[in-house]
Description:
- By secondary structure, the protein is α/β, with parallel strands linked by helices.
- Helices cover 43% and strands 18% of the residues.
- It has one domain: EAL domain (TIM Barrel, Alpha-Beta Barrel), CATH 3.20.20.450.
- The chain has helices at residues 2-8, 25-31, 68-71, 77-99, 115-118, 121-128, 144-147, 151-163, 180-183, 195-198, 205-220, 233-241, 258-265, 276-289; strands spanning 34-43, 48-59, 65-66, 106-110, 138-143, 167-173, 190-193, 224-227, 246-247, 256-257.
- It has an 8-stranded mixed beta barrel with strand order 1-2-4-5-6-7-8-9, surrounded by 4 helices.
- A hairpin with a 5-residue loop joins strand 2 and strand 3.
- The longest helix is centred in the first third of the chain and has 23 residues, at 77-99.
Amino acid sequence: xxxxxxxxxxxxxAEFEPPNGKVTLADVLRRDWFELWYQPKIDLRVKRLVGAExxxxxxxxDGSMISPGAFLPGASEAxxxxxxxxxxxxxxxxxxxxxxxxxxxxxxxNVPASAFVKLPIAQMLREERPKAANWPGLILEVxxxxxxxxxxxAQGIADELRALHCSLALDxxxxxxxxxxxxxxxxxxxxxxxxxxxTDCHADKVNAGLCETIVELAKRFELKTVAEGIxxxxxxxxxxxxxxxxxxxxxxxKPMAKENFVSILGRRMVGxxxxxxxxxxxxxxxxxxxxxx
Length: 293
């Protein structure tokens, strides 16, 4: 099944850095080069697609892609807020494209902590959210080190989001070394294990212990765990074995353009099997794979 997942999500378009010259976030926004790419999130227990994380990219007029590492450094707070607004609104629209293919997926976006204070996020969600009755909501990811500066703000925003069927995820968990006492105060529904702990977690005793501790803590607080940066089957099996809920990483799929992602969601069959019994098995597998949460 893993091989089928890898084939299904194989990227169909390579990413390229700008050949010459520096591109800034202001350039990307002004020239409308912004777009969202999506990286699938997989239920580790049953290897089923359950969601996707939206990741920012920029596309030049010649079709070449620019990674965020090339245009985000040095961006001003105002530019980051403008980008965040576009990311949220785009993800809300992209859900409808996914739903049109029969996939009810919970998408997640990255949000800087300052946006919760300086952007009317709750109002945006209330006014722009998909009208479909089966919309599962949006996950807003914020890094541990940012949110620790003001837990009260996070708690207040989480209450507003719950009313809109949205939730907060704590990204890069473990990198900020928050205390257990403070963890109890965090209004999150999902913990994302920092990728530095995921790497070689099957063989590295320190990383294995950290992953096990985070998963156990999450279960005690009734939170889901998401492991980022899974690149090997050994890491995937280890994380599944200790009870991690969801995984994402190159083992399953690289980030891909929204058009490719939506196109894949619309594909219920890959190829044309010769034997009817194989067709039935493949159809069953794909229906399970694309079932939403």
